Amino acid sequence: MKRYGDRIFTFDFKDEIGIFNSAVSLHSHTIYSKENLGIIARYANRVPIIRALLKRENLKRIKSHKRPIDFSSGYWIPPLSPESVYISEKLNIENNLNLTPLISLSDHDDLTGCMILRSIYPKRDIPISFEWTVPLNGHTFHLGVYNIPYFIKDEISEVLRDNKERYNVKRIKEILNTLSMSPDTLIVLNHPLSQISDMKDFHSGLRGFISEFAPWIHALEINGFRSRRENDLVIKMAHELSLPVVGGGDRHACAPNSVLSLTKSYSFSEFVSEIRKERISHIVYLPSYRDNLLERRLESISDFFRYYPKHPIGIRRWTDRVFFRLENGIVRPLSYYWNRTIPFWVKSAVLMISILTSRYIRPTLKVFFNKGN
């Protein structure tokens, strides 16, 4: 166990956790999360062969008087259904920690996954939660909003569907104020350092966001897909701000969350009270968190491109999980256009990704990149 300040504790898997009753899994994404394809372009540019294929394709399009590929006009969705993610998290906690699982999904700007789970398991403690995309002064931040009151779910859904209200700072504050009045609701600033590239960004962006929304932020997140160094900086930042931290896995694929919160409570509402009132944090790093971060990300990419023959709602191929918005505003999956034939450059890029993420190549990559996270 490692202690940070007076009220923040972190545990490695080998530490004694028998004093706790439950483990809390936060921040999981399902097929109802829409992830911008812009990140695909950034990662593609880091792989020379894929970067060359993309450049070649765009040159061909320009010569044919077509627009270059605009990744920002599309999005992708994770491969798993809400129930699949829920079962995965439940088994992860029960099998590895032998504790009661408290699980909250948080899809991007969408409550559908949580509502589906509540209909499947009406007698279980299933919080209504989501991850709110909040832009401010040229930066984009994410708030994990957990266990919202049932009576406000329709109003929030309407706000999330309305692009003007969704990004209206005044409206966001009104909603956050209403949410904070519920003692059972937890509002977390997720992966706060993930988009900070230099000190200027840190001061103008993150500090400005915290200053603007400080009255409604209950905790900062220790993220399962960020490095140990970054998470330690978040813990230091939380101590300086007199805020607790919570563990958030941020899974987008098949591997269960590697960072969880521990609590002596047996219900999600009691856990929230522990964070908001007692302001005491207990975080556990599972063994999977020690694996090389690049290798874990490659595994997630591999999960995305995998074929799922028994997918519960028929989203079997990766082309069913990538969508583009056309000039007329209609959104279609790639499988609509490439039902029979996938362009050669795309096949080549996917083949390269498949090779890099294969179980035969991953051990070799681990040798090169296993220098810690």
Tally of structural domains: 2
Provide the CATH superfamily of the largest domain. Metal-dependent hydrolases
Structural class: alpha/beta
Order of helices and strands: EEEEHHEHEHEEHHHEHEHEEHEHEEHHH
CATH architecture of the largest domain: Alpha-Beta Barrel
Strand content: 15-25%
Q: Which radius of gyration do the C-alpha atoms yield? A: 21 Å
CATH class of the largest domain: Alpha Beta
Can you count the beta strands?
A: 15
Largest sheet, strands/sense/barrel: 6 strands, mixed
CA-CA gap between termini: 19 Å
- State the helicity in percent bands: 25-40%
Order of strands side by side in the largest beta sheet?
Answer: 1-2-13-12-3-6
| Average pLDDT rating | 86
Q: The CATH topology of the largest domain, please? A: TIM Barrel
Give unreliable regions as ranges: none
